[in-house]
Amino acid sequence: MSDENGRVFREAWIEGVRAHYPGDPKPGYVAPWEETPDWERASAAAVCQQVRDFIEATGGNASKLTREQKGRFVALCWTGQIYKHFADPKPAYVADWADMPQWQRETDSDIFEHIEKQR
């Protein structure tokens, strides 16, 4: 997985957390790339590539998705990465869209849109 893809994802995540998280986010939420665990770096790169591949596969027409649909796509891809790296993840780590906090849904939507603008 590309380090560049991971950094694009991570930058969008941090921007989204800072914009949408109520109060002060946990330090790990906004830690710089260099302090991000290896599994999380690999996951960020993988999800960024999945979003890019999806946009490409639709001929750019993924732009017609609603903001929620874009966020759901990111969330589902991330959940797949959690299952890849953790045998028995905490339920909150693999929560369905409806069970995710609003700040996280907004951040996931921001991530898709950030990647989309990188094209």
From TrEMBL:
Organism the protein comes from: Saccharopolyspora flava
Protein name: Uncharacterized protein
